[in-house]
Amino acid sequence: MNTLKVELGSRSYPILIGEGLLGRRELLGQHVPARDVLVVSNAIVAPLYLDAVSESLRPRRVVEAVLPDGEAHKTLANVARLLDVLVANRFGRDCAVIALGGGVVGDMAGFAAACYQRGVSYAQVPTTLLAQVDSSVGGKTGVNHPAGKNLIGAFHQPSVVLTDTRTLATLPARELRAGLAEVIKYGLICDAAFFGWLETHLDELLAGDPAALAHVIRRSCEIKAEIVGRDEREQADRALLNLGHTFGHAVESATGYTQWLHGEAVGAGLLMAAAMSCECGLLSESEVARIRRLIGRSGLPEKIEGVTPQAALEHMRMDKKVQGGRIRLVLLRKIGDAFVTADYAEAALSRTLQAHFG
Amino acid sequence: MNTLKVELGSRSYPILIGEGLLGRRELLGQHVPARDVLVVSNAIVAPLYLDAVSESLRPRRVVEAVLPDGEAHKTLANVARLLDVLVANRFGRDCAVIALGGGVVGDMAGFAAACYQRGVSYAQVPTTLLAQVDSSVGGKTGVNHPAGKNLIGAFHQPSVVLTDTRTLATLPARELRAGLAEVIKYGLICDAAFFGWLETHLDELLAGDPAALAHVIRRSCEIKAEIVGRDEREQADRALLNLGHTFGHAVESATGYTQWLHGEAVGAGLLMAAAMSCECGLLSESEVARIRRLIGRSGLPEKIEGVTPQAALEHMRMDKKVQGGRIRLVLLRKIGDAFVTADYAEAALSRTLQAHFG
Q1: DSSP secondary-structure letter at B93?
Q2: Could you tell me which CATH number the domain at A2-170 has?
């Protein structure tokens, strides 16, 4: 088992990564001392792991809530349902919530925990690659609004992130590829060597090789923990983690959160961020080609259909990085060197959108 | 103008108290630098002050939202409506929300600000005595759940509290009396001299004397700012501010939030906390009589009808101070000396509820 730590003073917490951790029933119990626990999962993950998790928490009082699967269900109405479950079971401020599933489950369970009684404790048990490398770490919780991704939410740090890499054995290939987009993102923003490692070992990752997957989970969490520890509330550097996301969120919200997995949209967003960086004269064409090759080999979709450039731009305007009405973007100087800027030519953005949308 | 400060490090903020502050249009502008502002008010307050506040914010972009009046409307559904307004107007993370009204408006506008884009800035402009002495200070935001008061919410500190004492001139007598309950609470928990002052000056307060009201607002805010500065998230001493509230919240939720003003329920709750403290052999009967006399003179209702002791107890079990299934109560050793305890005889609580409910 690997243990990393997110250093946030009194809100610090460990990330435990290892094979078969869900079978070690003492682990979850140790980090979730509450006597009343709500385990939140979804219709796909629950049949696979919910019994084991609930069982490992006995003799605590365990209540289970199973949400529908998918980004389209990440709504305030569903968080309200979780709050109703907490209230109906008369859970106190000393209860805990456990998120067992992917990013959607984690974001909603975490937001419910943030709001219930003005904040109760919660634990992340991510079962998708995307959640294991990204969304379970850092305390961003929330839901989508029809007009924009993650517009409603809270910063609320979990008490532990418990990643059992064995859960990836049951992960559909499409979900695995979506998770790889966030992994590639880490290489692009600050670790060129890691990007190179991904180029070399991509086939092992796509084949589900446990050692290769464990490596990318660990390295991704290291990078994320370090950045979040420096800038919990995204006043500065944390925005780098949004590379590809301003474009990607527009893809998701413009298509009603029903067609694209978040990671898939991020993959397309990374391509657009690279193209835009090239348009701005920052990134070389050869590096753009390297990025395009790796994302293509990952099996991530590149073609965005049914969304006009104008519609995409409208959705980008709802991005949380907008400041003074101006869309701020994360761009690349080279692979491994990202930065946030509002200083770019509108024409470059237009050309990028024209090339990828519609 | 009096200026107090809530000391919370990077989240510190001033409380400005004075007559006619809403007429000094530079004040609000100075503390609300955002260019996009949502002013939230209710159907009673809006016709009186909304135009003046919106006007003082020009040439900013000002959007107004008017909520229905009353505790029964402090719901997640209404906060969702405020979030829709923010989204529909494409407000960014650099926007601000202004709460113009009483505690219900302040709690909902503050919670919307806490959740929108994971937190935007907001200002409190309280127009009721209760909001001016209590709810506008300290960053507790949220909504009611049918099963329990304030069960859903967030700690989110405002950027400024701007209290124009002249707004009390338009406050209905019933609302003024409700606010006095929270004022009396401060004397009870930690300031016997202030309690004595209230006994002497109550008639002036009830007559709406500006100097007397300004004094109680200032002193109440001093006490609250000091306690919140010590314990922002109610890990310890802040719970003292809940004297009378565990009982009072049960009155409110058991009656569907429609019959009692919050302050009225707190008044009844203070009586029950005093009676319970006496039952436990802590508080003398003569002090209970003093408390009963002051609350009676304030014109606060003492009779709770239509709620059985059993129903009241059920609602008390949803209190946020419940720990390990045990209801913690704020009790009095004497006037000016409150403490939090779970160490009391169940029989004492039963007798207290029997004497006041049903």
Answers
A1: T
A2: 3.40.50.1970
